[in-house]
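S.,

Sequence below, as promised.
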Amino acid sequence: MNLQNTLSEKVKQAISQLYNTSLESVEFQSTRKEFEGDITVVVFPMLRVVKGNPVQIGEAIGEYLVANVDVVIRFNVVKGFLNLVFSDTYFVDFFNSVSDFSNFGKQTGTNETYMVEYSSPNTNKPLHLGHVRNILLGYSVAEILKASGKKAYKTQIINDRGIHICKSMLAWEKFGNGETPELSGLKGDKLVGNYYVKFDQEYKKEVLQLMAEGLTESEAKIKATSLVKAQEMLRKWEAGNKDVVSLWKMMNDWVYDGFNKTYQSIGVDFDTLYYESNTYLLGKEVIKEGLQKEVFFQKKDGSIWCDLTEDGLDEKIVQRRDGTAVYMTQDIGTAIQRVKDYQDITGMIYTVGNEQDYHFKVLFLILKKLGYQWADHLYHLSYGMVDLPSGKMKSREGTVVDADDLISDMAKTAKKISEELGKIDDFTEKEKEHLYHTIGLGALKYYILKVDPKKRILFNPEESVDFQGNTGPFIQYTYARIQSILRKGELSVKSSNLEVLHPKEKELIKQLQLFPETIQQAAAQYSPALIANYTYELVKSFNSFYQNVSILGADFEEEKSFRIKLSRAVSDVIKTAFGLLGIDVPERM
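The prediction came back faster than expected:
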């Protein structure tokens, strides 16, 4: 039984003996920093069964706990809050009970299995800053779920078909002159993205020309030659036209190669991949079956819809009048295929921006109407957009921040700041470049992941690479500082059992104790931000300890030994926590 459970039982006993009544539950919270205490019992809810002054009730419970619980040595009552103080021995015993902090906080053995979808790009453009937030969130959530004891599969659906793909293909046919990634020296995803931008430029010219000829803007947008050709190309692709399919395969292969290089640079991976070009076919079969079961209905123009008005939503198209699939078609097929492939799945998490909130409400509801019970365990990890000081990004206009360029720029910024600090002069050039990449990428990941997923982010690259404050480099620097301490003090480590702790030692151990619970909360809320901000608090606590307590210069060998072990424990937890965020920690910097 953990201490909080023990305290809960003892508080109930106190209420029973002192007031001759029973208490169903006890509410605890962290003690506010301005008061002395290691945990706080909230007295106010007890007033439902115990009549009286909350301060007097708190005093009576506090006296009972001091008399009956060894680790509770004193207390104070502030209004209706009973703050309990634990003995130093309790914290030392806890610390010594953990034989290896390198795996501290991780759990094993639940039967829950999740499939986490993230990235899921279109194959008509390179990955950009918006994708980066998606990728980092999804990867981190999967790692946190695994640390909490669950099983997690990482996956993506590659949106490799549709009108947007055909736009890039058409532009390449018209303007490409046989250009390839090898000939141009560009990554394949960048090359194809250039033609997506080129299509949009030509399309806008055509719209303006048609408007000059007397058409309205809406008419011009529909009748523009480029769009009509793109729609025709999509129909040919779905009909299996050899030339169109061959071009599609060639250009998609260029993009996949580019994506893989970016994923490798970011440091993320996937357990399985799904392709819309495969799953949309299953989706179309399900649409046909759903039409027969009257889950869907067909309009006069031949398009197929799902009426969700009784559910407070709208009518949703699931197949166009020309028989071609829409996003909903392939999403239905993908979900069903995944459950067929991984029958141990108990839930699926879709990491997709909040502009798609309505889409996923509809998707989950349609799957329920089709009779799939597992549809109750689908979750949309909705996140806010990433903005830049210059404003919103637009792919078709070519104003996005390319992911590869961003990572490169972050490394350059890290290089500039590291050189100003001047602490790596003895590094080789290769070691320096690796360090710059580690710091730059860590800065980017931490800046994005420390924010609650639902909130919008204004990304400031310079601010993210600051070596002070709530940043990745600040935490990485603290980790490297601890490694320096361990290198100097490793030989003097012996077993140690202190009876009296410095307040900063106690504060640090209390912070370590919170890590397992933080992992569980982060998993339950699908929020890497809880891990990020926990790590920052741990690092702040260590730096306060470092500034106020002599580690290697301790007066007694036993103190020195204990403080080195405590420092190592902190560095182990930092490394684990940052690992859950997908961030590396350097041994020196």
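Residues 162-270 form one domain.

Coffee later?
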